Amino acid sequence: MSTTPPPQALTKQPGTDENALDDGALSWLRALGPRGRRAFAGAFGGYALDSYDYFTLPLSMVALAAYFGLDSGQTGLFTTVTLVVSAVGGAVAGVVADRVGRVRALMITVITYAVFTVACGFAPNFETLLVFRALQGLGFGGEWAVGAILVAEYASARNRGRTLGAVQSSWAVGWALAAVVYTLVFSFVGDDLAWRIMFWTGALPALLVIWMRRRVHDAPEAAAVREQSAQKGSFTAIFKPGLLRTTVFAGLLSTGVQGGYYTLATWVPTYLKTDRGLSVVGTGGYLAFLISGAFLGYLTGGYLTDRLGRRRNIWLFALLSAVCILAYANIPHGANTLLLVLGFPLGFCMSAIFSGFGSYLSELYPTAVRGTGQGFTYNTGRAVGAVFPTAVGFLADSWGVGGALVFGAIGYGLAALALLGLPETRGKELA
């Protein structure tokens, strides 16, 4: 299977309309050209379905705990295992992307997370479910980094932040789809079967892979540079003196942002049902505000990362996210209208900070090890950041879920500090 167009296309960034320099709302999409737009569609769909498959677990957490008789620490372990194993999957997928191409690696990751999400629905006990969820993490860990690089190598430096921010927004689309399916399934089916149905619907990504196999290709110019490099996919290269500092601080940045994010993504549904006493439909309504804020946050953050720069955008939303978490967790009982309203800025800020990640991490590494560097740092951040939702799980019984959410704010503080060791990369050409 070929994932790159013929060599004669290598004279310029393929599929890119270099005259599309207008500032319209969709100028970044027009500038990608036909091949770039297909790559965008593949990455967007892959990440949306990645999100959908991920959120089947947090949304089903209360039903799973009741079915298997689990405590808060054990349910938190599901998320920890997923994120820890995702570090392995992300690092491996990054190396594979540098060695065999972005599109092939992307299809492998999508198939992996889809197969094991479905398998979770057949788990007979806690231990089996934990193993299947860990294996799902292998594909989950690699998908975002590979898809982001695929699109970043098509996008111009001028529009890269907005383009990757739009790809990132697909996470909110998948999250919303999962929330809708959760509301319908748990409203009409008993909890003991409903959580299994949620996991079985994770087979949807298989349709995307069939389309990608025929329609999506690597960016030829970047592929040519990668193929000609003697160090392509070299894991040791990202730890050599020229890149070691970047790898360490990018890993810390990813740890802080994802520690904060996954604390919220994992525990807010449980917080709404247990601490705030909301029904299934009520929880879905509150999540709608959170998710709509997240979608707009991704798009806005993508625009701001091109205007303000990568570092300033992350700094701004790290501060705002920490403030929103502390406010959200300390809303008095009975003030559920305020809880509903505050969900929008919370979702907005914790998502806007992610919008610059696809462009920023892609720009920090050279083409030959871009997949390796981005896959490792982003997913190591996921693995170490998994400590945060686990800490919330073990402290929930004594502090309450709301009180324990403070760990999310600590994560965003770490992200802000990590930026002190990284350069600004706005305007950098990738190939």
Automatic annotation (TrEMBL):
Membrane topology: Multi-pass membrane protein
Keywords, alphabetical: Membrane, Transmembrane, Transmembrane helix
SUPFAM superfamilies, A to Z: MFS general substrate transporter
Subcellular location: Cell membrane
Keyword Transmembrane: yes
Domain of life: Bacteria
GO cellular component, as recorded: plasma membrane
Ranges that cross the membrane: 76-96, 103-124, 130-152, 164-187, 193-211, 284-301, 313-331, 337-358, 402-422
Molecular functions (GO terms): carboxylic acid transmembrane transporter activity
InterPro entries (alphabetical): MFS (IPR011701), MFS_dom (IPR020846), MFS_trans_sf (IPR036259), Sugar_transporter_CS (IPR005829)
Pfam family, one: MFS_1
Residue span(s) of domain Major facilitator superfamily (MFS) profile: 39-426
Protein's name in the database: MFS transporter
Species: Streptomyces guryensis
